[in-house]
């Protein structure tokens, strides 16, 4: 599998086969994904990783990190229930990931909600995450703050509102930036693509976004050189599983259950026929 490096080649990628290839590699390799995530999301994050074939590890103790983090395949940091007790562990884990060449994903939950949270997210961005995954408002808040713009953020921003902010943040940080919404936007600052899979009811399931961040970590883990492509592929596969689950669900509780089952059972035909990843001009 060759790395894609130029903007012009983005449209030439056969996205659906690539998404299936990366999912197959996750299932074959079962990458170890360390998750320092919020209390609300731990259960669903772990189950989504397991259903996709990865191995979750919810290790967050500062004392354990020097022994554990160097041996993981990827790290996912989520600031949803951020506290001054957990922030040093997040920073230490990110530093270790960088030191040992491990990809890591930042999920900047509610990045602009408080000064403490925004400052913490900016400090984590400075540690060079491989991927930053957030909603439109979170990405706009980080982008504005990174550029020194003290501009308020409307919590109703959708993913398409944040395309320019995502590109700016990607260029400033060196990270792949993913903005999730009705259409997920993925950019490395030059290439911009959209993944249009998923269902609106995912918004009614707590930690669905946190879980897809962890799934991105698993996809990136199997080929860190393809972080851009792996991010788009993970978002599409997660969305396809949600679409399949929605065909059986009557509400958010059943969608949660069927999402996990469908991610576990998803096959090549489903990925190839349903995946919707295209370039955004």
Automatic annotation (TrEMBL):
<comment type="function">
    <text>Thiazole kinase involved in thiamine salvage pathway.</text>
</comment>
<comment type="pathway">
    <text>Cofactor biosynthesis; thiamine diphosphate biosynthesis; 4-methyl-5-(2-phosphoethyl)-thiazole from 5-(2-hydroxyethyl)-4-methylthiazole: step 1/1.</text>
</comment>
<keyword id="KW-0460">Magnesium</keyword>
<dbReference type="GO" id="GO:0004417">
    <property type="term" value="F:hydroxyethylthiazole kinase activity"/>
</dbReference>
<comment type="similarity">
    <text>Belongs to the Thz kinase family.</text>
</comment>
<dbReference type="InterPro" id="IPR029056">
    <property type="entry name" value="Ribokinase-like"/>
</dbReference>
<keyword id="KW-0808">Transferase</keyword>
<dbReference type="GO" id="GO:0005524">
    <property type="term" value="F:ATP binding"/>
</dbReference>
<keyword id="KW-0067">ATP-binding</keyword>
<keyword id="KW-0418">Kinase</keyword>
<protein>
    <recommendedName>
        <fullName>Hydroxyethylthiazole kinase</fullName>
        <ecNumber>2.7.1.50</ecNumber>
    </recommendedName>
</protein>
<keyword id="KW-0784">Thiamine biosynthesis</keyword>
<keyword id="KW-0547">Nucleotide-binding</keyword>
<keyword id="KW-0479">Metal-binding</keyword>
<dbReference type="GO" id="GO:0036172">
    <property type="term" value="P:thiamine salvage"/>
</dbReference>
<dbReference type="Pfam" id="PF02110">
    <property type="entry name" value="HK"/>
</dbReference>
<dbReference type="InterPro" id="IPR000417">
    <property type="entry name" value="Hyethyz_kinase"/>
</dbReference>
<dbReference type="GO" id="GO:0000287">
    <property type="term" value="F:magnesium ion binding"/>
</dbReference>
